[in-house]
Amino acid sequence: MGCAASTERQGEWQDTAFQSLGELRGALRWSGLRSTNLIIGIDFTRSNTWNGKLSLGGRSLHFIDPAGSILNPYQIVINIIGRTLHSRKSKKPIHVFGFGDSRTADQCVFTFLPDGSPCRGVEHVLKRYKEITPELVLGGPTNFAPIIYHAICQVKASEKCQILVIIADGQVTSKKETSQAIVEASRYAVCMLSPRSCHFFLFFCSFSHLIFRTACENATAIIVVGVGDGPWEEMEQYKFTLPKRNFENFHFVNFNHVMCENPEQPALGLAIAALAHIPDQLAAIRRLGLLNENDE
């Protein structure tokens, strides 16, 4: 796994002496994160084929080991973030969407279950990822807007804090659309995406089927975990180029860098790097009155 340099700050918890994911989970609860909806977006663009040349021995970043002894970066991130926010045995719903394959391209997302229902726990997410991935044809370009808009749509039906984790292998191609979606995530719920079925996936088209936008009672924190060889300079600076938002709701993490910087406890290092800004984001959401009091 390559160890590229990173300038991204990891937040106020980077030097805290957590000894386990359980301790980190407890600290998140102490900060006020009693209950949260985890939403995962997975990048299936074509660049995953070659962006593991250095960091994954030339294999695709979506390589599935038949024996199960080697986990690819997507499986690792899902497992670590999922186990931190939800315990391993938890059956809490996790909404998971793919984007960027040959059918959705940069316009839509697809659900991991045929009926559009969420996965039940981290193990279910990993099981469905392993089943679905070999059947997909990778596509592109890279656009985070569809997954962000669909994640925001979940806000309308929920009274909990929304955390969207996007796992991706490259820079954003559709910068304008993605930036606009991130700004929207700090202010509005974008609702009523019209579904259509295709094969065994359920698709949601974020632009042509967008019906209306409405003010929401909650807000969405967005974490992008960059996997593969990069380059990541643009993503590390991306938040500084965004228009003014109601709160700082976007955070980028360089997977390879964090894992290499934490050789003894890579899982804990990644969890801290990804979630260190959640307490500050939660405080901002409270100040804006976007958090339901039942989540306190």
Strands, helices and their partners?
Elements: H1 21-30, E1 36-43, H2 73-85, E2 93-99, E3 108-111, E4 119-120, H3 122-132, H4 145-156, E5 161-168, H5 175-185, E6 188-193, E7 195-198, E8 201-205, E9 210-215, E10 220-226, H6 233-241, E11 250-254, H7 255-261, H8 266-275, H9 278-287
Parallel strand pairs: 1-2, 1-5, 5-10, 10-11
Antiparallel strand pairs: 2-3, 2-4, 3-8, 6-9, 7-8
Helix pairs in contact: 1-2, 2-3, 2-8, 4-5, 7-8
Characteristic key phrases:
9-stranded mixed sheet; 296 residues; two-stranded antiparallel ribbon; 31% helix; 9 helices
Instruction: List the uncertain runs.
Output: 4-11, 188-218
What count of structural domains?
A: 1
* Share of helical residues: 25-40%
**β-strand number:** 11
The ordered string of helix (H) and strand (E) elements is HEHEEEHHEHEEEEEHEHHH
Label the overall shape.
globular
Strand percentage, roughly?
15-25%
Mean pLDDT: 76
The total count of helices amounts to: 9
Organism: Phytophthora nicotianae
InterPro entries: Copine_C, E3_ligase/Copine_domain, vWFA_dom_sf
GO molecular function, one term: ubiquitin-protein transferase activity
Protein name: Copine C-terminal domain-containing protein
